[in-house]
From TrEMBL:
Function: Attaches a formyl group to the free amino group of methionyl-tRNA(fMet). The formyl group appears to play a dual role in the initiator identity of N-formylmethionyl-tRNA by promoting its recognition by IF2 and preventing the misappropriation of this tRNA by the elongation apparatus.
EC identifiers of the protein: 2.1.2.9
A GO CC annotation given for this chain: cytosol
Gene name linked to the record: fmt
Domain of life from the UniProt record: Bacteria
Formyl transferase N-terminal domain ranges (all copies): 1-177
Transcription keyword on record: no
Annotated source species: Nitrosomonas mobilis
Name used for this protein in its record: Methionyl-tRNA formyltransferase
């Protein structure tokens, strides 16, 4: 079987690594061009490129997929299937039709729930109790293709996007290997998605990460987990922007006073009133500083009961 692979970040590299470990030959890898990253803005290869180079796999990094030259290269490769995972570029209809068995996508949700760019964050933010990996046949729509298989996983009460991403990346790898094994054995079946159950996972914007303390404590706590590690939920205390990384709900329902007001301080956290309920801040990060426990923050910053966290205009 001749396999092409298209992907860019570590989520995709985890799947590619699982395929190679299972002895599925990959004839060509597509990944996004190197990007400037880090404080020094040095050019950095994607996780998929680094893995492909380690295994001496043929590699292409097109700026666009709407190229007659690229289309000719893919036709010449005569692929049986293309596996796509978090590639970052939309595949034109002409490319979807090149592989014998089409293009198969590894999507980080239980489709048709959370189609789109940010399924992990949206699942946590919505308070979903489970998510998973869907292996789907790609078509011209946005994650609308027929489902080959779905692989559920529970969302832990303290799950962040960072921790859930890593679990789903591993699950994506095992799921695509199983799919390829079924494809070789001729066991694949396609199930159309139920459009009435579809929901959209819009791309995360930095402005969404600003904390609105008039919301209930449970919602704010989910937002903080959903936006960890990116873009990081943030607020402001005494005019200084602060990112908040870890919290727990002390009381989910009662009214505790003016939203954002500090109502209690202890070594295990800073209790803040919300629209409903109270949130205990346990790990936070001042502008220009590192992440601190509440006890560490209290030791180096002057504030008192009655001070307020308010919405911030900018991030840390």
């Amino acid at each position: 079987m001749k396999i092409l692979f298209a992907g860019t970040p570590i989520f995709a590299a985890t799947a590619l690594d699982a395929m190679l470990a299972a002895s599925f030959p990959v004839d060509l890898v597509l990944t996004q061009p190197d990007r400037a990253a880090g404080r020094g803005l040095k050019m950095q290869a994607s996780a998929v490129k680094q893995l492909a180079q380690q295994h001496n796999l043929p590699l292409l990094q097109p700026l666009s997929l709407k190229s007659a030259e690229l289309e000719a290269q893919l036709h010449a490769a005569t692929p049986d299937v293309m596996i796509v995972a978090a590639y970052g570029l939309i595949l034109p209809a002409t490319l979807l039709q090149i592989p014998r068995y089409g293009c198969i996508n590894i999507h980080a949700s239980l489709l048709p729930r959370w189609r789109g760019a940010a399924p992990i964050q949206r699942a946590i933010l919505a308070g979903d109790q489970e998510t998973g990996i869907t292996i789907m046949q790609m078509d011209n729509g946005l994650d609308t293709g027929a489902i080959l298989s779905r692989h559920p996983i529970s969302i832990a009460p303290n799950e962040t996007t960072a921790t859930l991403h890593d679990k789903l990346a591993i699950l994506g790898g095992t799921s695509i290997v199983a799919t390829l094994q079924d494809l070789v054995g001729g066991k694949l079946t396609l199930t159309p998605q139920a459009e009435t159950s579809a929901s959209y996972a819009a791309k995360i914007s930095k402005s969404e990460a600003a904390i609105d303390w008039t919301l209930n404590a449970s919602h704010i706590e989910r937002k903080i987990r959903a936006f960890n590690p990116y873009p990081g939920a943030f607020s402001s205390l005494a005019g200084n922007p602060i990112k908040i990384w870890q919290t727990s709900v002390v009381d989910p329902d009662s009214f505790s006073g003016m939203p954002g007001k500090i109502i209690h301080v202890a070594s295990d956290g800073i209790a803040v009133a919300c629209g409903h309920g109270t949130l205990r801040i346990e790990i936070l990060q001042p502008a220009g500083g590192k992440k601190l426990t509440a006890a560490q923050f209290m030791a180096g910053h002057a504030f008192s009961i009655g001070d307020r966290f308010v919405s911030a205009d900018k991030q840390v």
